[in-house]
Amino acid sequence: MAINREIWTIRKVLEWTRGYLAEKGIDNARLEAEWLLSASLAMDRVGLYVNFDQPLNQDELAAFRGRVARRARREPLQYILGSQEFCGLDFEVTPAVLIPRHDTEVLVTEALRLASDAKTVLDIGVGSGCIAVALAKALPAATVSGIDASAAALAVARRNAARHGVDIALSEGSLFAPLAGQRFDLIVSNPPYIPSADLATLQPEVREFEPVTALDGGPDGLEFYRLIVAEAPAHLAVGGWLLVEVGIDQAGPVTALFAAHGFGDCFTAKDPNGIERVVGGRAPERRPQ
Ligand SMILES: C[S@@+](CC[C@H](N)C(=O)[O-])C[C@H]1O[C@@H](n2cnc3c(N)ncnc32)[C@H](O)[C@@H]1O
Known about the structure:
Low-confidence stretches: none
Radius of gyration: 22 Å
CATH class of the largest domain: Alpha Beta
Distance between the termini: 73 Å
Largest sheet: 7 strands, mixed
Strand order of the largest sheet: 5-4-3-6-7-9-8
Number of helices: 11
CATH topology of the largest domain: Rossmann fold
Shape: elongated
Number of domains: 2
Number of strands: 9
Strand content: 15-25%
Bound molecules: S-adenosylmethionine
């Protein structure tokens, strides 16, 4: 796309970009080229197909080139486009937040299956707000709270709550620190869970662009589960549920943590790829004081 005098139609731009992005190691290069061009022309993908022979003007080419260059450096498509769909809702994403993953939707599904009568809900590590907003939409009578250690992530969560017309009580702090004395019917969390030594092996989109504070789960990846499972009983109502997302091969050790802290009705649930993705359990019985 360097020769200025050439005529670059939508068809030609897409063909060139598919090849270029594929060379840079990007799967689904054609589809990504279409998303990037759609954003640059403010035209949906069907529009691209029906206007294949339309030439791009210099401004359109410049805007598109900038986006392609970012993607070629392996910046995630979602940060370039500024959004990601989750549970059928469109979320703003910036480099301050983890990009919502479809695998996480099973956490929302299980929470709604088990605790559809929850009146008070807490999401620890709220990030973009995807889980908290999806739960708030599905449980309009519930009061939903979210905690994150990152002020920048909370700003994104606040905009996503406003975008979807839900009220979420957002607080900055570590785990349960801002919540002394508060109890919830349902606590959910998708905490950082990548073992520290594995961070360097992640694909560049994740390793170089997503916030490390959303990924690093300590030496064995289980650091946050130890803290959350130990502290959750003091913040769960009688019969309340704790549900956490887990990484590959973590369901066993995390279930053991739940059992060691007296949780009942412990279960695991798989994501659509057949990987154990959620561990849950009910608040341990409270001993008389
Ligand atoms: C894996 S991301 C999950 C984000 C979002 N809930 C989702 O599922 O896409 C984990 C989140 O935990 C936050 N976090 C990391 N350490 C924390 C801590 N000590 N207390 C509260 N939140 C923390 C990160 O800032 C990040 O937003």
